[in-house]
Amino acid sequence: ALGSGRSVLLAAHCLWCASRLHLPALHKDDHHRYLLSFWFTFLGTFGSGALSAFLFMRPDLHPVPAMKDPRLLPFLVAAWYFVQYTYIGHRIMSASPVRLLCRLSTTLSRAGRICNNSELAVALYPGVYGAQLVMGTVGGAGGKLACDTMKHCLGHLMDPAEVSLPGWSMRSGFLGSAVYLAFVHYLPEELRLEPQQVSEW
User: Fold this and answer.
1) Which helix (H) or strand (E) holds 173?
2) Would you say 124 and 130 are in contact if contact means Cβ atoms under 8 Å apart?
3) What would the DSSP string read from start to end of 95-141?
4) What UniProt keywords apply to this chain's record, in alphabetical order (predicted)?
5) Residue 48 confidence class, pLDDT cut points 50, 70, 90
6) For residues 192 and 180, what is the distance between their CA atoms, to the nearest angstrom?
7) 8: containing domain
8) What is the rounded average pLDDT for all residues in the chain?
9) In whole angstroms, how far apart are CA 196 and each of 33, 44, 116, 185, 189?
């Protein structure tokens, strides 16, 4: 049952990201650049996990997501094609209830990555508070940072990059990491929560 629930959460996350990370919208000539469009969607969907894996440099503890879970790439390919290249997929993702559920799934996934990154950073870098906050923030904003980098390389980055002018992704990632670290590790012991309690929420 738990595995099925995670599959549904993953599928909804992929659908939401495929609907939001639409490279053809950047330039009309990009519509038929399928591989480029897919990689843009991939970076936005799983960029946080991939960037975190490269920064941690501990594949035994934090492998690249696509190399750990065999469901990721098939789910993303199906969601990307369904949403971006079929009429019915576009129509379904235009329905408000579907968009709300998919967005909620992405929010839950981000929260999980922020908490997992923060927890692993505490174990790997005890007492290095800056590193713990940075890794927690990357867990929530890595996808946005990766997409900004790709758009910059393509000449499509029209707004300030997230890393130079933090927006929702970095601010919420930083705040989420700070709150998690405070309530699980750094408040007085009688006020702390156990990591299991946070995951149950």
Assistant:
1) helix 168-181
2) no
3) SHHHHHHHHHHHHHHHHHHHHHHHHHHHHHSTT-HHHHHHHHHHHHH
4) Ion channel, Ion transport, Membrane, Potassium, Potassium channel, Potassium transport, Transmembrane, Transmembrane helix, Transport
5) very high
6) 10
7) 2-200
8) 88
9) 44, 28, 11, 13, 16
Lowest mean pLDDT across 25-29, 69-73, 140-144: 25-29
Q: Quote helix, strand, coil % in the chain, to nearest 5.
A: 80, 0, 20
How many domains does the chain divide into? 1
Residue 164 has φ and ψ, to the nearest 5°, of: -95, -25
Q: What is the model's pTM?
A: 0.88
In whole angstroms, what is the distance from residue 42 CA to residue 36 CA? 10
Query: Which pair of tokens denotes residue 74?
Result: 């098939």
Q: Closest Cα to residue 23, out of 140, 158, 154?
A: 154
| 55, two tokens | 């920064």
The residue type of 1 is: A
User: Quick one: which of 7, 72, 9, 6 has its CA closest to 45?
Assistant: 72
Q: How far apart are CA 61 and CA 119, in angstroms?
A: 11
How far apart are alpha carbons 71 and 118 in whole angstroms?
Answer: 25
